[in-house]
Structures are given as C-alpha cells and as structure tokens.
C-alpha cells in the first residue's frame, strides 16, 4: 500500500502537468478538478493545486529545475507533506523528486490505488486491490532499500554473491501475486456457479456502467429501493451489488451496480477487477449512465467505451442491448433540457433522466422491458389445470400474458426466447401438450 495515513488530513498539493502540443483528453481545469476530487475522496487536505504547462518531460525529475525550485518554496511555506502528480511518473522520477523536495510523492495511479484500497469492503474487492497494488509496486522496487546494501551473501561456504535485495523483493511479490490470482480464480469459479444458478431461474441481468460519480448508485437505489452508498464522491462504489427488481409489466430482472471508470484508469486496476467486470460481459442489457452536468460528458463517454472495449465488448454502443442513460437532467436549465430532448427525438436507445428525483425513470424501465422482450417469441400453450409443474416452468422461463380458463384446461399466452421455445416444443411432444401460434 502507498503509505498515506487514512482518516488524517494530510497536507498536500496537486500538480497537473500539461504537455504543450499534446492532445487533451479532458480540459485542463476539469482534469485538475477531477484529481482534486480524487484527493478529497481519501481525506487529503489540498492546500495548493496548479496546472503546469511543459514543453518536455525531464527523464530524471519529470519537471525542470526552475519549477522544482518554485515548488520548494511553496512546500516550505505551506508545510506540505505530500505531492500528487497527475500523471504516471517513473520510479526514478519519483525517488528523485522525493529527494529534492523532501516530501512524499505519488502519481495518479498510486492515488487511485489508494482510494480503492480504502473503499474495498468485500474479500473479493480487497484481493483485487491488493493484486493491483502488488503489480504496481513490482515495477517500483528501485525505490526500496536505498539505505541498505542491495546484495546479500550466499548461503554456505561455496555460495556465490547471492541474490540482490531487489531480486528477493521481486520474488516475494511474484509469489504473492500468484497466490492472489489463484484466490481470484476461485472467486471467478464461484461467480460462474452463481451465474449458472441464475440461468436455472433465468432473471435477465441489467448492468450499470459509467464514469465515476455519474450517478450509477443513486439510480440503482431509486430503481431497487436500496440504500447502497451513493454520494457526490469519486469511486463511492467498488464492490458489485445486485438486487432483483420488477419491471412495469411484471418481468423480473437482476440489476447490477459496478465500479465506476475514469480517464487513464490504471491498467493494473482494469486487469485486477476483471472478475467483477465480467458481470458486465454477461449482462443481457448494459445501462451506460452519463453525467450530463459535466462539461466533459462526451469525453467521459469515450473513456468508458474504451474500457469496455478493452474488456472485450467491441463497439458496444452499436449493440442491441446497449442503452445510454443521460443522468442529472435536474441540473440542466430549461434550455439545456430542451436541447437534449431534441437530440434524443427518435432515439430508441437513449433516455434523459434524473436519478435523484426519479424523473423519467419509468420511461427507462419501459425501454429495458422493450429491449428484453423484443427477441421473445409468443405462443399459446394448453395445459391441464392440475399441471402445476408445467405452469411453474412457464412462469420461470417466459413471460406469461393472457390466461383463458376452460372446463378441462387453461390456455396460456407466453413469450419465450428461441432456446426456451425449442425446449418447450420438446416438452410438449413428451407430455402430449397442445401448442399453437408459435
């Protein structure tokens, strides 16, 4: 773990380097504000923040000598204890900056890892965060043991020079990584078993994805009447949560809340949280929640789609099971709402809502239901009134509509998927059931 003391307001500064001529992902000010938000998420006391425009990156210290001298006076004046560089810096740059400035220096990746380390509540979440930390630390062993000899003697009289301390540390970390990966593989197997159990009682999975702080957990709480932590804070949700909810016409689904994404999401985290994010890969519907009140909502959308692409969901925004949920409509003025409503006219895969007050959430639920039932095939099944086992199968595996009662039998209108229809036909043959209109 990065040694930032939790629950203590560590006096810190945020430095946001911008390379002149480099294509900007987010606007400079929004990038800085996002990083300040990350720092506040673990109770850092941000006493200084600054955007630094640079022509080049110095291999040794990242920043030039002039800016480092300027930083020294700021650090002394404000008695800073930590500096966050909103970029990925090398181990050498980190060590040299700490020597020059005489304070702890962490980069964007370390800051995000620190938040994840504090927020993970479940055993699975803790394992995933530890794996990401170890993967990150393995590449930064150059910083360790600077006060000791780097080489240890060999064992026995004929031993060679022995292995260096860095090699030993790397081996220890590698062993830990192997163990955690094995533990996560067990988690993955458990999830697959749970997924198989859900297929036997086949509730469709609807997964919420989106940029961190877009309002996924607020929407999750509104739709499921739950109390999952939802606050105006980056990465409020880490551990996946699932709830069963009922759609307007009676269809039952599993709603899944997932970890939020962010621009330049560390590769270590994407890989570590893959087991959790596999829920998204197997979802019947993907709800991409966007924060319309954010000036960089379009870029945030691209960042999320890029992460999904890396997970294996190629061109997901063109998929039939993808819905864009444009959230925080309550924060738009009348002109802004009118503008978005005009943009959305005629779109069947986008909806403007407010998760905080529930505005248009019923419209979203109807859209989910339409998507889920569009692939279903309607047929009629005539069953004996006493055939409880078959009636139960219809309710568990399809959408039962009209029921007509006759003297010796009941006629059920049911909508089922193609694979369930073939199973139903086979059962009809085996049990002398009558099916019509398929």
Describe the structure concisely.
The chain is built from 14 helices and 14 strands.
Structural account:
- This protein is of the alpha/beta class and 438 residues long.
- It has 4 domains: 11-108, GTPase HflX, N-terminal domain (Rossmann fold), CATH 3.40.50; 120-147 and 162-195; 203-373, Rossmann fold (3-Layer(aba) Sandwich); 377-436, 2-Layer Sandwich (Alpha-Beta Plaits), CATH 3.30.70.
- The protein has helices at residues 28-40, 65-78, 91-101, 108-119, 123-138, 165-200, 216-224, 267-272, 274-281, 297-311, 334-344, 361-373, 388-397, 418-430; strands at residues 11-19, 45-54, 82-85, 104-107, 205-210, 241-246, 252-257, 285-291, 322-327, 350-352, 377-384, 399-405, 409-416, 434-436.
- The strands form 3 sheets. The protein has a 6-stranded mixed sheet with strand order 6-7-5-8-9-10, sandwiched between helices. It has a 4-stranded parallel sheet with strand order 2-1-3-4, with helices on both faces. It has a 4-stranded antiparallel sheet with strand order 12-13-11-14.
- The protein is elongated.
List the helices and strands and how they pair.
Elements: E1 11-19, H1 28-40, E2 45-54, H2 65-78, E3 82-85, H3 91-101, E4 104-107, H4 108-119, H5 123-138, H6 165-200, E5 205-210, H7 216-224, E6 241-246, E7 252-257, H8 267-272, H9 274-281, E8 285-291, H10 297-311, E9 322-327, H11 334-344, E10 350-352, H12 361-373, E11 377-384, H13 388-397, E12 399-405, E13 409-416, H14 418-430, E14 434-436
Parallel strand pairs: 1-2, 1-3, 3-4, 5-7, 5-8, 8-9, 9-10
Antiparallel strand pairs: 6-7, 11-13, 11-14, 12-13
Helix pairs in contact: 4-5, 5-6
């Amino acid at each position: 773990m990065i040694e930032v003391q939790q629950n203590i307001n560590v006096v810190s500064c945020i430095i946001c380097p911008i390379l002149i001529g480099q294509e900007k992902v987010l606007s400079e000010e929004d990038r800085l504000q996002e990083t300040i938000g990350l720092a506040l998420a673990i109770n850092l006391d941000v006493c200084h923040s600054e955007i630094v425009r640079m022509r080049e990156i110095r291999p040794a210290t990242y920043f030039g000598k002039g800016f480092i001298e300027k930083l020294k006076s700021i650090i002394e004046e404000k008695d800073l204890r930590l500096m966050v560089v909103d970029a990925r810096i090398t181990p050498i740059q980190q060590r040299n900056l700490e020597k020059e400035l005489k304070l702890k220096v962490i980069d964007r990746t370390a800051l995000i890892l620190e938040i994840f380390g504090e927020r993970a509540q479940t055993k699975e979440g803790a394992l995933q965060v530890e794996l990401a930390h170890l993967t990150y630390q393995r590449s930064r062993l150059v910083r360790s043991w600077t006060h000791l000899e780097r080489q240890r003697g060999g064992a026995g009289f004929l031993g060679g020079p022995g292995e260096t301390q860095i090699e030993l540390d790397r081996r220890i970390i590698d062993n830990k990584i192997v163990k955690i990966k094995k533990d996560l593989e067990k988690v993955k197997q458990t999830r697959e078993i749970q997924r198989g159990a859900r297929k036997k009682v086949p509730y469709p999975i609807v997964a919420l994805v989106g940029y961190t702080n877009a309002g996924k957990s607020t929407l999750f709480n509104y739709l499921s009447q739950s109390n999952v932590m939802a606050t105006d804070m980056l990465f409020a949700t880490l551990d996946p949560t699932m709830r069963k909810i009922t759609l307007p016409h009676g269809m039952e689904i599993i709603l899944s809340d997932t970890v939020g994404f962010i621009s330049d999401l560390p590769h270590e985290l994407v890989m570590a949280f893959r087991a959790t994010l596999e829920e998204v890969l197997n979802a019947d519907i993907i709800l991409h929640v966007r924060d319309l009140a954010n000036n960089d909502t379009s870029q945030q959308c691209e960042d999320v789609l890029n992460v999904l692409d890396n997970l294996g969901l190629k061109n997901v925004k063109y998929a039939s099971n993808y819905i864009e949920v444009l959230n925080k409509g309550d924060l738009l003025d009348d002109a802004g709402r009118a503008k978005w409503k005009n943009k959305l006219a005629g779109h069947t895969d986008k909806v403007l809502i407010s998760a905080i007050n529930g505005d248009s959430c019923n419209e979203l639920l109807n859209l989910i239901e339409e998507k889920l039932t569009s692939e279903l095939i309607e047929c009629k099944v005539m069953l004996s009134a006493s055939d409880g086992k078959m009636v139960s199968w219809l309710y568990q595996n399809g959408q039962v509509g009209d029921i007509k009662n006759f003297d010796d039998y009941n006629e059920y209108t049911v909508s089922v998927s193609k694979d369930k229809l073939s199973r139903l036909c086979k059962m009809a043959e085996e049990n002398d059931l009558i099916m019509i209109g398929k």
